Amino acid sequence: MDNPFIVGLISWFVPGAGHILQKRPIRGAVIAAVVWIMFAIAIASGGAHYPGFEFKDGSLLYLLNIIAKLGNGLGALVSFIMAGTPSPQVAAAATFEYGGRFLEVAGLLNYLAAMDAVDISLGRKK
Questions:
Q1: What are 69-98's pLDDT values in tens digits?
Q2: Which of 18, 52, 62, 114 has the most crowded Cβ, counting Cβ within 10 A?
């Protein structure tokens, strides 16, 4: 693929797809597996419902949480839909905060993978 913007967008929206498009299937599969497994663990742990606060309670932390979650691309849509119908038992679970952190780290890792795909597309990296 010649357009680095499109590669970055595809790589962000579907983790690992940007590398697969550029004929690096092993790297793409590893990235996809790591990001999606972290995402699945986060959702199973109740991470879609974290943070348990609103924008007015801590605007900077809330924005950092949202930006990190958006890094999941397609997974971000799933987590935002799931967060719309919270279960009252989720916040009482011991894994609630760990799930939130896993969701954020999966998103941040996907940002790095998308930048890697763009660098490969631009020829800055082999």
A1: 899 999 888 888 877 776 667 666 777 778
A2: 18
- The CA distance from 123 to 110, in Å, is 20
Alpha-carbon separation of residue 37 from 34, 53, 100 (angstroms):
5, 26, 14
> What's the pTM value of the predicted model, to 2 decimals?
0.86
Is-contact 46 93, C-beta < 8 A? Answer: yes
CA 20 to chain centre: 18
Q: Residue type at 88? A: P
**Mean pLDDT over each residue of the chain, to the nearest integer:** 86
Angle at which helices 74-83 and 96-122 cross, to 10°: 160
